[in-house]
Prior knowledge:
Layout: H1 2-13, H2 17-29, H3 31-59, H4 63-87, H5 92-98, H6 102-112, H7 114-129, H8 137-161, H9 163-168, H10 170-193
Amino acid sequence: MAGFITYIMVSVFTPGPNNIFSSISSARIGIKKTMRFMLGILVGTFLVFVITGLFNVYLYQNIRIITQIIGVLGGVFIIFLALKMYWTRKDSEKILIKNNKLFLMAVILNFINAKTLIFGLTVATYYLELGFPVEGMVLFNSIMAILCFLAVLVWGLFGKVFREILAKYRILYIIIMSLLLAYSGLIIIIESLT
């Protein structure tokens, strides 16, 4: 059980697309404007966790193939996002400020975010293997979505608190975050195939 909780905390709070975008957006446009994105993450992760949880009993028999497909496609998409972030690093502030559909974008992002999908499948599998009741899965998924929301909030606060420093070293920060995002995409692909 301790390993299960450790896995959850590490997965939720390590850099991934949701956390990195939250940090960058908060640094650029402030936490208040980024809150739409963060609330979208809350709703999106909850929906993904409920769907993966409810279908996990069926998917459990085929999880390896599904995890590989989701992992590779999602990892490629995350690398694409990293490259796009890097290529548009000079104009990215304008893109984020003009985007008034942050909530919907965040909800949709979770359905193509390999980290969220694989995490949802893995956690649902462990939940069932530990013998917890299927009826409690929705409550468990709600707790998981709240943890994900707290993670993007922490990363957003990080971006907000260090806004001046990040503004001074904006290009370097975007390059580092792009590399972290690309790294997480590459790791997802590698772990999906092994």
